[in-house]
Amino acid sequence: MKLRVLGCSGGIGGNLRTTSFLLDHDVLVDAGTGVGELSLTELSMIDHVFVTHAHLDHIACIPFMVDSVWLMRDRPLTIYATGETLDILKQHIFNWKIWPDFCVIPDPQHPSMRYQPMELGETVVLNGRKITPIPANHGVPAVGYHLDSGAASLVFSGDTTTTDASWEVINKIENLRYLIIETAFSNAERELAVLSKHLCPNLLAEELDKLRRKAEVFITHLKPGELELTMRQIEDGVHGVRPKMLLNNQVIEF
Fold first, then answer.
1. For 161, which DSSP code?
2. What 3-state DSSP class applies to 229?
3. Which helix (H) or strand (E) holds 14?
4. CATH number of the domain that 243 lies in?
5. Which terminus of the chain faces fewer neighbouring Cβ atoms within 10 Å, N or C?
6. Residue 171 confidence (pLDDT)
7. What angle do CA 163, 22, 98 make, to 5 degrees?
8. Diameter of the chain by CA atoms?
9. Which of 240, 222, 178, 198 is nearest to 232 (CA)?
């Protein structure tokens, strides 16, 4: 499996793009503004989108993508998420007011998009690749994802604050190799991090103390203007592992 980072920022500006990862050539994990970096041909090859939660920085490009490529495809784009997240997309995005409902375009018998609800712990197998939602603790219904090639695993936390439930799952993954975990705010915004259910470096250090597996750790969702500050605070406060900043266009193979 090959994971390409299309976007990993907590905002936009310059070369910063919001959360999206391309798994091989046909799967997206989240669909933030980073998806806009793909060519029309690359977009047309995507069959599956796994959504962590319904915040705009993680779903912004789904409407544009399906609108751009539906005439180029002979099968629907499948959107995977919890039932609660799918309900938000149906009610607030694909509602004919914000965007057309591509589940009935060109007609209900031949939709351009379809929804596939998932439950925590339910594994979807796509050509031998296993994708499983894991717990997250955010301001809206949210999950992270465990991606397993068989040889190794990668975990993406999604947007989350402190939670023991996710670590119970992560620490059972015997072939864990990579962990991508968010840190949205610097320590100066700890109260905001708690209120919005994100992490800051001090909270991240507490969470990583719960990690019982050896893994390479990457930091995502850093806020524009605070990249260097937040990473310095992480380097000073986190012990036992050496987290690195996730980068646009980085490729992780596992």
1. -
2. helix
3. none
4. 3.60.15.10
5. C
6. 98
7. 80
8. 56
9. 222
Dump pLDDT digits (tens) for 88-102.
Answer: 999 999 999 999 999
What tokens does 181 get? 């975990």
The count of structural domains within the chain is 1
Amino acid present at 219: I
The pLDDT-based confidence of 132 (bands split at 50, 70, 90) is very high
Q: Which residues contact 88 (CB under 8 A, 6 or more apart)?
A: 54, 140, 141
Amino acid at site 223: K
Asked whether the beta carbons of 107 and 121 are under 8 A apart, the reply is no
> What tens digit of pLDDT does each residue of 52-101 get?
999 999 999 999 999 999 999 999 999 999 999 999 999 999 999 999 99
Mean predicted lDDT score pLDDT of the chain:
98
DSSP string for 166-209: HHHHHTT-TTEEEEEEE--S-GGGHHHHHHHT---HHHHHHHHT
